[in-house]
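agent> Task received from the user: take the single chain below, predict its 3D structure, and emit structure tokens. No templates, no multimer pairing.
agent> Plan: (1) validate residues, (2) run structure prediction, (3) serialize to tokens, (4) report one or two observations.
agent> Step 1 OK, no nonstandard residues flagged.
tool_call: predict_structure(input=
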Amino acid sequence: MNEIKSIKDIPTEDWMGGGSPTCAGCGPEIGLKLALKVLGKDTVVVNPAGCMTLLCNYPFTPLRVSWIHSAIENAGPTASGILAALRARGRKMNVVCYAGDGACYSDDTEVLTESGFKLIKDLKAGEKTWSVNPESNELELEKVEKLHKYRFNGKMVGVKSRYLDYLVTPNHNVPIWGNNKWGFIEAKDLKVRYKSKTNRSFKWLGKTPEKKYYIPKVKVKTSEKIIEKVPIKEWVQFLGWFISEGCLYHSKSGYLIRIYQSNDKNRQEILRLTKKLGLNSFECNRSVDFQSKQIYSYLVENCGKGFAAKKIPKWVLS
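)
tool_result: status=success, residues=318
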């Protein structure tokens, strides 16, 4: 594909001929005509239901490239499937998909990536994000192939509850849960439904780790006890308590790890857990505290410091 810097660089060869049944001056048709000039004959056009489907009323068509018609909600998957099949056969072809306004999320949407939550506008192609397989309900890491950005003028559809908060364009497919399986409807249809359910539990296929976990050593100036390895089960439980309820303090007096818990029973469980890990912990009025530069350093690097920076370590997610 040659770079086009001005009108004189536009190829003269046309891959859309005369005889089009669309309206005179149709914007989408002109756009497709120019796009095909750049992309050339080795192109497949995926066209969801709409007025552009008038281009190819059998047995006549102005297009001189391959073309396929699909339902509106299937345009993206159709294009992805064609591209995957072409790659499997070793054929280098362009796949163009007409898909309305793009069916987007707002740019302040957060996406769970392999390295933690990121704004969707900050994602880059090649990064991996966590996705739910609608067939198996399993969490899977999927590679970001491409990113698309669109302007949208109109009212978007917002959903906000205790566990959900998102803003999408009206034609975006959103997942709903019913009869123990996933289904999809357009966001605009949420407003006419009495109730729509979703599922917050997913299957997680992880690897069984070693029975012991090794914590990196650090240099200390005091007689602080350095822990070499800890039982994996108790260590993961501790990380869960820290990520959900813990905080870190560093001052001249040392490195403090504090896990807040007002429930007496839970506080005793945290105390028992930290003792089993070999930590010199003690119970306060509403928390369990202990000092350790080694554990402090590990938590800062692997779990983050501060509420907004908290994350689950990668090795736990695997």
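agent> Step 4: summary for the user.
Helices lie at 27-39, 75-88, 232-245, 264-276, 293-302, 314-317.
agent> Done.
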